[in-house]
Amino acid sequence: MNDVSGEIDEGYVKYESHWTPGPPPDAAAVRLLNRWRAPLLEAGLIGHYAHLNVGFGNISIRAPLPGQFVISGTQTGHILDTTDEHYALVTGVDIAANHVACSGPIQASSEALTHAAIYCLSERINAVVHVHSRALWDRHLNKLPTTDPAVPYGTPEMAGELERLWRNSDFQDTGLAVMAGHDEGLVSIGTTLAEAAQRILQLAQAS
Asked: If DSSP codes are grouped into helix, strand and coil, which group holds residue 39?
């Protein structure tokens, strides 16, 4: 379980959201997301800060159409067994303008802009996992590729930081990064959702 020692800047949508309520995303994508969300939840890497009443952690998978991906909905960290009602399809993103368009039964996660920025880095990236862990964050801060501590989550500036890491660190090789300006936050990427999830789960097990 995460040891929250201070105020966590988490769970608040910082981008301009254009949400169109609609049917759930692709059922096969949702099944796969649920398959890997379960062990992340069990490991405490996705969950809910009870004292703040906000969820943390989210996962996504690239959709077939360019620029689209399926992501867990905002404030779903407390839900033990998610269904298709708890996922959104991101249909378009303008990172510079800080805009995210999504559709589905729920609004996309507050980290949707960051996920979009990661997918822009390479067509090889097909899945993104964002987790929280005080132990992993403390252990790997400035050891794994690490973003600037002055840059908060869910912002265009974070997109720029992730691009910097992609170009100037071993982020491409590790598939893991620490978000120094997002207390407890780490990201894991992969060519598949299994790869992205297993990377962070193995990091947790090794610790």
From this structure: helix
pLDDT tens track for 18-47: 999 999 999 999 999 999 999 999 999 999
Q: Tell me: the pLDDT tens digits for 167-177?
A: 999 999 999 99
Neighbours of 204 (CB within 10 A): 18
Show the tokens assigned to 124.
């090889």
Which of 123, 114, 125, 116 shows the shortest CA–CA distance to 89? 116
Task: Give yes or no for a contact between 36 and 57, defined as CB atoms under 8 angstroms apart.
Answer: no
Q: Which of 205, 193, 180, 187 is nearest to 46 (CA)?
A: 187
Q: Does residue 87 contact residue 25 with C-beta atoms inside 8 Å?
A: yes
3 state SS of 175 = coil
* Nearest C-alpha neighbor of 176 from the set 128, 109, 116: 128
Domains of the chain as residue ranges with CATH: 16-206 (3.40.225.10)
Question: Are the C-beta atoms of 70 and 30 separated by less than 8 Å?
Answer: yes
43-to-6, 57, 178, 198 alpha-carbon distances in Å: 21, 12, 18, 12
